[in-house]
Amino acid sequence: MESSLSPNIKNFEQNYQTHLKRLKLNGMQPKTIEAYSLAVRRAGGYFGYQI
Asked: What is the 3-state secondary structure (H, E, C) of the chain?
């Protein structure tokens, strides 16, 4: 299934995972990570995962 994903979505997923890792490494609280993650996913969806 991974090969059927568009390049935008693959790139977004990679950047998203990096973002999550950095939030955790910076010691953010779980609720903060959840809120930031939701905002990034929503923005990504709105802009066609080109962020």
From this structure: CHHHCCHHHHHHHHHHHHHHHHHHHCCCCHHHHHHHHHHHHHHHHHCCCCC
Q: Which two tokens stand for residue 5?
A: 């994903």
What pTM was computed for the model?
0.80
Domain spans of the chain? 2-46
Could you report the per-residue pLDDT of 5-37, keeping only the tens digit for each? 788 999 999 999 999 999 999 999 999 999 999
Angle formed at CA 20 by CA 27 and CA 45, multiple of 5 degrees: 140
